[in-house]
Amino acid sequence: MQTGLTDIPLTSHGESIVRQLGTRIVGQGKILDPAHIQHVFVSPRQRAQKTYDLLFQDVDKKPSCSVEEDVREWEYGVCEGKTTSTIRSEIGDDWDIWTMGCPEGESPDQIRDRCDRVIKKIVDMADAHHGKEDTEGHHGDIVVVSHGHFSRCFITRWCQLEIAQGRIFVADTGALHKLGFQHRNFQERSLLGLNLYSVNE
C-alpha cells in the first residue's frame, strides 16, 4: 500500500523491529556510534521521528537531528493508500511509478530533484568536515531516517543513476543502508551496503 502524506504512526510490529535494530547497530563501537555522527536528518512523518527516538533511546547523548522535509516519502497523489493492483485497475495496467509517477502526486523528476537537494546538503556538510576527523568534537557520519520508496530513490541518485533504475534496489524496513564515496572524492559515490542488520522475518 502506498502511504506518503498520510501521517500514520509506527505500528507495534514496526516499533519492535526498530528496537531490535537499535540494539544491534547503535552504540559505542557499533556501526552507528553516536560519537561519530555529525547529524541526523529525519522525515517529518511521525513514524520516522519515532524510529529516530527508538534507535537512540539507550544513548546518553543523542546525536543532533533536524526534521528535513525533503526526505519525506514519495507523494502518491491519487495513489495514496492504495495497493499497486488497485492503482493499475484505476489508472491502467501499464502504470509504473518509476517512469510515470503518480497523478496529483510527485513525478520521478520531482523526487529526483528532492534527492539531489539532500545529497548536496550532505556532501556540503561532509566537505566542510574533511580534515577535521581527528579534531575533538568533530564527527563525520550523517544519518537519514526516511521511508521505503524515498530510500530507494536516494540510493539511486547517490549512485548517480537515473530514478527509473531505483526499481533494482530493495530497501527493507528495519535495515541499514550504507552509502559512501571512494578515494575521498564525492564524485565517486558508492553503495557500500544494502539491507544490513535486517531484522525482518
TrEMBL record:
It comes from the Eukaryota. This is Phosphoglycerate mutase-like protein. InterPro entries: His_Pase_superF_clade-1, His_PPase_superfam, PGM_Phosphatase. CDD domains: HP_PGM_like (cd07067). GO terms for biological process: ribose phosphate biosynthetic process. One of its GO terms (molecular function) is sedoheptulose-bisphosphatase activity.
